[in-house]
Write a structure and sequence with these properties.
Layout (H helix, E strand, L loop, with lengths): L1 E6 L2 E4 L15 H12 L5 E6 L6 E3 L10 E3 L3 H11 L3 E5 L6 H14 L4 E5 L1 H5 L1 H4 L7 E3 L4 H13 L8 E2 L35 H12 L10 E4 L2 E2 L10 H5 L4 E2 L2 H15 L3 E4 L8 H13 L5 E3 L11 H9 L2 E9 L3 H8 L8 H11 L2 E8 L6 H18 L2 E6 L7 H8 L26 H25 L1 H13 L1 H16 L4
Parallel strand pairs: 1-3, 1-6, 6-7, 7-8, 10-13, 13-14, 14-15, 15-16, 16-17
Antiparallel strand pairs: 2-5, 4-5, 8-9, 11-12
Helix pairs in contact: 1-6, 2-3, 11-13, 14-16, 16-17, 16-18, 17-18
Bound molecules: cobalamin and iron/sulfur cluster (SF4).
The site of cobalamin (B12) has 39 residues, from helix 1, strand 6, strand 7, helix 4 and helix 6.
């Protein structure tokens, strides 16, 4: 039996402007974990991982009228079709990480059925996990997988091999299978208890060098790629919290499950020995949830010779720190920490975001990072239903103040109702969205939430103002630090996406509409 994993090309721009992303690529961990698991289970079939983004080719769809053509990063649909027909797979496992890219996944499934109809198509990832009932209606998809795919894909393959109908909780082949799901909307399935039972990802199935090359030349998801040979690494899965805007539980569950020290050590060793990595982005859902495990990860990092640089771009809790831990973090190679505050108003954190976070500790963390010399960034969200206008203003003022005072770099986001979140339910149930059809609310890059307290226009103006004030502080920092200025010029020359993003931010900062 032949299994083809496909990571579809990325849609970077759609004519209706509902998608507008910079092209980027990362090693497709989900598919590589599944491939490694199948190997560990002695699955005897042949497999190939086809990441259709890897050509790095940015183009407009050729077979469409100019005003209907999307901009695509990666292979053309013709090349995707040829890869499928050349390989002649029995099963095609399509991965889709972001709801905003679901059309790329569905177009891939359609193409599979057009050019190679005998293959069974399977779709997995966060969007499929949230909307299995919608996905199962798609005629080009034979199976939808909800949640972690390792064991479920194995069941699908083995059942097909035996000529049986794949079945099991989280495997949806028809509407009736939906009854196998638990009623919990955000965690409708079981999760793998012992995540050490999943071997480290099968990196050998992809051209890791090519990812490093593209990422360090502007196709990193981060505005700036910090390492030349950087990888994302997860030491745990799941998060017990229930922040209203977060959808992670649908794929990874509420239970925090972490890898053993031995597993993490072996994973890092594998990446060093085989791929000579120089940077790690720890992107666990809640990296510092269990402080004991976090300290063990630091011990592993401190053992590394030379040290590996690392960061936490996905955000970590802001209340799990003391001076000693911050020092150890810095000593182990951390380049920056990113804390997820969301709001600087305790009422908003408690009643709107529903995050368990005691704000009174946060300023001490900021001071301690400054003292230790560890860069700190902070996430803020504006425009959540329930926030008041004065609270939104206060949040922006707080973020700028802390940037000026302690150098805590703020990242502002506009609340976006992601499928599978409580926020999505609130927005849909109360019809708080403007200018979008119900099925498209999650696709917007712009504010869409309207409440009695604020309009999307107000949120956009607050966002523009926040970015403008942040940019001015950044310029001030740069002018007072020649090192930062030189670094900025060097990076801009090398990375056109970095340059465009900064140019846009500066333009917005200077010319943003006063509303
Ligand atoms: C790392 C990460 C990123 C990195 C990606 C790096 C990378 N390695 O690819 C970057 C920085 C790019 C990123 C960006 C964003 N992210 Co992000 N990210 C993650 C994170 C933390 C980990 C991803 C990962 O590697 N998971 C580990 C692997 C093992 O899981 P997986 O890929 O989901 O695969 C498993 C299952 O889904 C399933 N599966 C997947 N595919 C398939 C296919 C088949 C056939 C089968 C059977 C099963 C299956 O099996 C796999 C193994 O168990 C996830 C949260 C999470 N824990 O998954 C959020 C997550 C994917 N991100 C999310 C979001 C919202 C974003 C942003 C929109 C944030 C923002 N506001 O900018 C941007 C998206 C930018 C864009 N539109 O392109 C959401 C997506 C929700 C959604 N429905 O769209 C998630 C789920 C987090 C959340 N809080 O809800 N992200
Ligand atoms: S935002 Fe972070 S802390 Fe909140 S539920 Fe999601 S992963 Fe957990």
């Amino acid at each position: 039996m032949k299994l083809l994993f496909i990571i579809p090309p990325q849609i970077t721009k759609s004519p209706d402007n509902k998608v507008d992303y910079k092209p980027y690529i990362t090693i497709p961990l989900g598919s590589l974990y599944m491939a490694a698991y199948l190997r560990s289970q002695d699955w005897q079939g042949e497999m190939k991982v086809y990441d259709a983004r890897l050509s790095g080719n940015l183009h407009k769809e050729e077979d469409k009228e100019e005003d209907a053509a999307r901009t695509i990063f990666g292979d053309t649909w013709q090349t995707v079709a040829k890869t499928i027909t050349d390989y002649q797979p029995d099963v095609i496992a399509i991965s889709n990480m972001f709801s905003v890219q679901i059309n790329a996944a569905l177009d891939t499934a359609k193409l599979c059925k057009e050019v190679y109809p005998s293959a069974t198509t399977v779709l997995g990832g966060p969007h499929a996990s949230t909307f299995p009932s919608e996905m199962v209606e798609n005629e080009h998809l034979d199976y939808i997988v909800v949640g972690e795919g390792e064991q479920r894909l194995q069941i699908i393959l083995e059942s097909i091999e035996k000529g049986e109908k794949p079945s099991g909780q989280g495997i949806i082949g028809c509407k009736e299978d939906l009854t196998l799901l638990k009623p919990n909307k955000r965690a409708p399935i079981r999760f793998i208890n012992d995540i050490d039972s999943i071997p480290i990802p099968a990196y050998d199935l992809v051209d890791v060098e090519r990812y490093f090359h593209l990422q360090s030349n502007g196709c990193s998801p981060r505005v700036r790629e910090y390492g030349k040979r950087a990888v994302t690494l997860l030491t745990s899965r799941g998060c017990p919290h229930q922040c209203i805007f977060c959808s992670v539980q649908t794929t990874m569950g509420y239970r925090f499950r972490h890898h053993s020290t031995e597993y993490i050590r072996a994973h890092i060793k594998h990446l060093r020995d085989n791929y000579d990595i120089d940077y790690i982005h720890f992107e666990d859902d809640n990296f510092t949830h269990d402080i004991e495990s976090y300290e063990k990860v630091l011990d592993i990092l401190l053992e590394q010779k030379p040290l590996i640089k690392w960061d936490t771009p996905n955000g970590v809790r802001a209340d799990s720190w003391n001076l000693e831990r911050i020092r150890k973090t810095k000593e182990s190679g951390a380049q920056y920490l990113c804390i997820a505050l969301e709001s600087s108003v305790q009422r908003v954190i408690d009643e709107v975001v529903k995050k368990k976070l005691d704000l009174s500790q946060v300023e001490d963390v900021m001071k301690a990072c400054k003292e230790v010399g560890l860069s700190l960034q902070a996430f803020y969200i504006i425009g959540l239903p329930g926030e008041r206008e004065d609270e939104i203003r206060y949040n922006v003022d707080y973020a700028i103040d802390k940037y000026e005072r302690y150098g805590v770099y703020p990242t502002f986001s506009i609340a976006n109702p992601l499928p599978g979140t409580e926020l999505y339910d609130i927005v849909m149930d109360n019809k708080l969205f403007t200018g979008f059809s119900p099925k498209e609310v999650h696709k917007s890059n712009n504010p869409i939430i309207t409440t009695d307290e604020f309009s999307p226009d107000f949120i956009q103006s607050m966002y523009d103002e926040a970015v403008k004030r942040k940019t001015f502080v950044t310029i001030k920092y740069m002018l007072t630090s020649p090192k930062q200025f030189i670094e900025f010029i060097a990076r801009s020359l090398k990375n056109k996406w970095f340059f465009t993003t900064l140019a846009k931010a500066t333009f917005r900062a200077v010319f943003a509409r006063a509303r």
